[in-house]
## 1
Amino acid sequence: MQLHYGFDELKDIDFMAFIPIILPFFAVGILLVLIALIDLYRHRKTRKSLLMWTFIILFVNTLGPILYFVIGRKDSERL
Amino acid sequence: MNKFIVLIKKEFVQMVRDFKVIWLPIVFIFLGITQPIVTHYLPSILGALGGGQGITIDPSMTAQKGGEVLASTLGSQFDQLGLMILAISMMGIIQTDKANGMLAFILTRPVTVISYIAGKIVSNYLIAAFSVAIGYFASYLYVNYLFTDVPFSHMITALVFYLVWVLFIVSFTTMISTIFNSQGIIALISIVFLIGCRIIVGLSTVIDFVNSASMSKHAMEVLITGSVNSKAIDNALVTLVWIVLILFVTNYWIANKKFNHE
């Protein structure tokens, strides 16, 4: 079993076979993260834990942006 | 009736402000296309990453029919992560109105409690049903491309059955949101109850008959076998009875001012 792959083996992979299929999958995920990050950036003055939400949005897969939209957007409305 | 339309419009303005009309469909599209892609590439993912020595993958297992994959989209994506996301996104549906005094304010106006609740549920159900349908169509397109074709009539029938279950999810979360005051408790109770309902489907026929989650099972059956279970209509009616009961409890709770607004 091969565990280590070199960079020179990248050209052996047939990228064109699966990129058109996988691309929408990543595009949708990145779109969600981008919307959350743009909203966070526009309200950066009023958000309390800015850094924490940035990491949650970036690193918690799928659920991070959702948690930000549901819970994280609350604190600005109180002001 | 006029106030009902106004309340629905207010809800939609609120949703646009929360970006809910954007992110909820995106999340369901994401969930919908995950299942076909992962199922399609499972053999090559296992071959490349897993300790593959000595394991032969039965080709008949991986060559699934389109209907089975679409059914597993409903069963293992929408019924687990999708259900949690729906419950989390709807947990503040009435609780936020209670917390900031909006509910008490609205009730001082000449608005009936029923039209308030109906406006809440209808608007939230429309957005939830729209998201689920969009995600389901995305999944359908992928399944037709990567696997065998699913007949359009089966797809629509399964979607209609599934949307009945979604209506139950929305109204149950609304009721819990009316009764309890903390968002965490609302999310916890609705997620645990709804997933519990989904897990016990299939244990016994008596429980299945009163269990709304069996609508989801009927939707999967339509996709896999292609025929409608004769119990599906009965189950849909029982689910509607549950929903009316839930509306009644919610109405009673608000009308008798059981909620405490600080």
## 2
Amino acid sequence: MLSPQAKRKARKIRIAVLVAVFLLLLIMAGITADRRGQGITWLEEILQYVMAPVQGAFQQLTSFAESFFASIKDYQLLLAENAKLRERLAAATALETSIAELKQENERLRRMLELREASEYELIAAEVIARDPSSWFKTITINKGARHGIEQNMAVITTDGLVGSILSVAPNSAHVLLLTDERSAVSALVQRSREPGEVGLIENDPENPGALLMKNLPRDANIQPGDTIISSGLGGLFPKGLLIGYVSSTAEDKMSLTQYAVVQPAVNFNRLEEVFVVVTQEKVFPAADDAAEEGS
Amino acid sequence: MAPVIIFLLFVLSLALQGSVFALAGPSGTHPDILLIITVALALLSDERRGAIVGLCAGLFQDILFGSPLGFFAAVKMLAGTIAGLLSDYIYKDVTLAPMILTVGFTFFSDLVTFFLLKLFNIGASSSLLVYLYPSTLQRMVLHFLIMGLIYPYLYRAQKKQLLFAEREEEE
């Protein structure tokens, strides 16, 4: 613990030292102020010699900091550019998808138009608006109904072939029973042979989902894998000559009395979007035969 | 430990001052981080330590950036001494006090610098008003904000006695 006098003395000394240092610094600054045409002082030389590595490190630090922040700036620019490009890519992808969709739709409509023009039947175009979500029934709903001239049991086709028949009709919509439904049955024949005695019945194949079975063929029927199966027109429900599918295999039944064929449908029932309803078949085939044929 | 931390503070300040803030200064005005550090450290200690910190910081700056040797050492030592003298009169836990004081020290530092430049006939051909406005004014604002960011950390470091030891009774 110092006395007040000692404290004052210490303070005076401190102030004197500070003033002296300050003056010394000013003198040094005055000496080194104008360096033009002069070399550096010995003191500076020593200090700079000592500090040169530190200065080098500083320079590196500065360069690093500059490049670092420049990189951040570049990175920000790149991020912004990346975001813009992503947006454009997303827009382009959406456009591409839309174009592909339009192309496909255009192709389908073109084929439908060709079919409609070439067809000997009167056709009503309709769009598929719903599908039976259950796995038990194979039906679809179309956007045309009684108001458009749709009636029960009319055949439904696409450009690929036979789809099914009208199950029920509402004023503005109709349910279509697909060929793959267990309730559906079509009289069919082999296009290659076209023998009247080789008419089979197309039903769904319970052991082979998505495939059809052509049953009740004579034991010696001329049928082989790859044959094209078309509707026979018997019964009047379906017009004659509509493509049903292609034979993938044949076999005899258990009793070896008849043979059957597994038929792969020509129509992809999972991708039905537009269909035609055939409205004039009754003019060709008497409606009186329908029940007998379809009931079997 | 404390001298090392203070040295690192100087290094960091000069690195920032010579790089980032040299790039980011509005209309060519750069903040003097070293002055802010000097004032902050002086306010957290006393006039003797403030003077030493200012002297070291200024010398460091003079040697590293090629200014007349002792020029900024004198300016910063003066600022550090006065800030140290004021340390007894402020509430050190209130950040606003150093923020306001650093505005005054910025003005003071630039004023002294101007007169020294005149004294040694190094540049400063324009009038004091032109010299102080707008660069000093902008620097005052910048220093005010930067002190607000830096001081709380330095205060906490000092509370843990990482910067200076407690004052001796002799003082």
